Amino acid sequence: MTRFLILVCLVVSAVLTAAAAVWARTASVVTHSRHGRAGAHGRPRHHAHSHRRRRHVHHRKHRRPTHRGTGKPSATPTSPPTSPPVSNTGRIQHVVWILMENQDFGSIVSAGSAPYINSLASTYGLATDYSAISHPSLPNYIALTSGSDQGISDDSDPSSHPLNVPSIFSQLPGGASRSLEQNMPSNCAGGNSGEYAVRHNPETYYTNLGTDCRNYDVSLGATPDLSARFTFVTPNLINDMHDGSIADGDSFLKTFVPALMATPQYQAGNTAIFITWDENSGSSGNQVPCIVVSPFTHGVKDGTPYTHYSLLRTTEELLGLPLLAGAASANSMLGKFGF
Q1: 3-state helix, strand, coil in the chain (%, to 5)
Q2: Residue 97, helix vs strand vs coil
Q3: What are phi and psi of 262, to 5 degrees?
Q4: What are the b/e assignments for 208-236, b being 16+ CB within 10 Å?
Q5: Which end of the chain has less Cβ packing within 10 Å, N or C?
Q6: 126-156: b or e for each residue (b if 16 or more CB lie within 10 Å)?
Q7: What DSSP state is assigned to residue 146?
Q8: Among 119, 116, 155, 96, which residue's Cα sits nearest to residue 276?
Q9: Is the separation of the CB atoms in 177 and 231 below 8 Å?
């Protein structure tokens, strides 16, 4: 009996030992299998989950934000606009001045002897508070074209007042400016002749223009040439009202202004014509008319205080030029007459 029990115990021990070995092998295989699957992506499962979460956060960080109310992304902020430079408006590329003589504002505006001039003023534009700079004529012509009267107080000829100073003529060299002088006997004539008065031809006074005065300060022909960016027109002493009557000047302009408006430059819609008087008859204030004709000017009456320096400034602004001397502080006519 004792031997039988001992045998049973040995069998049971052997079975338990074998079972333990099988369990150990099975556990080892399971553990290996788990680590093998985790390592198939190069890192344990919890690392893979962490990686996916980081990618998700990274993606959300760069998503374009939605702005409620507009449904559109916000615009990139921009700098506030700067003041526009003194430059061409793009509409006016040619400027013409016609200089008349020695009339008060009230002698022309609403005067029965100037029906054509008044038709221009009512149809296009009139500056109702425009003044000349000085007396007599020449200081006004020099102020108009250089921004200063240059200390001149008489009407002497160019040999008495040689001016080596900047002017609108020096700003526009090589044919970009032109003077058209009625009845001038030869180009850039430096002395009076018949109905031509050199004091009404300011280009002849500037000594720093090289050959431009000889080439582009010419007699006014039957067909006006407005190909220059700036054209200065002086009628003769009858037609500018100096020696002639208001009716004489009105009659001249009634023929001449339509000729200007028939030029290719005006027909192209890029030309402005200014008609003004060098000075008044000597009354207080030196107020004179200034009429503005352009394709963009319609029935304007502007009461802004202007002077000859304003006309220079406006012309320089239209043509993209620096402002000379007194022009820099004068009121501009831009924005008042449709351009």
Answers
A1: 40, 15, 50
A2: strand
A3: -90, -5
A4: ebeebbeebbbebeeebebebbbbbbbbb
A5: N
A6: bbbebbbbbbebbbbbbbbbbbbbbebeebe
A7: H
A8: 96
A9: yes
For residue 312, the surrounding DSSP H or E stretch is helix 308-319
| Distance separating alpha carbons of residues 78 and 195, to the nearest angstrom | 61
Q: What contacts 224, CB < 8 A, 6 or more positions away?
A: 180, 231, 233, 256, 259, 260, 263
pLDDT by residue for the chain (339 residues), tens only, comes to 445 554 444 544 554 555 555 444 544 433 444 444 444 343 434 433 433 334 343 433 334 333 333 333 333 333 333 223 344 457 999 999 999 999 999 999 999 999 999 999 999 999 999 999 999 999 999 999 999 999 999 999 999 999 999 999 999 999 999 999 999 999 999 999 999 999 999 999 999 999 999 999 999 999 999 999 999 999 999 999 999 999 999 999 999 999 999 999 999 999 999 999 999 999 999 999 999 999 999 999 999 999 999 999 999 999 999 999 999 999 999 999 999
Q: Is domain 94-329 classified as CATH 3.30.2160.10?
A: no
3-state secondary structure of 109: coil
Pairing of strands 271-277, 290-293: antiparallel
Q: Collapsing DSSP states into helix, strand and coil, what is residue 218?
A: strand
| Token pair of 73 as six digits | 């992304």
Q: Where are the domains of the chain?
A: 94-329
Alpha-helical (H) ranges within 174-277 are 212-216, 246-261, 264-267
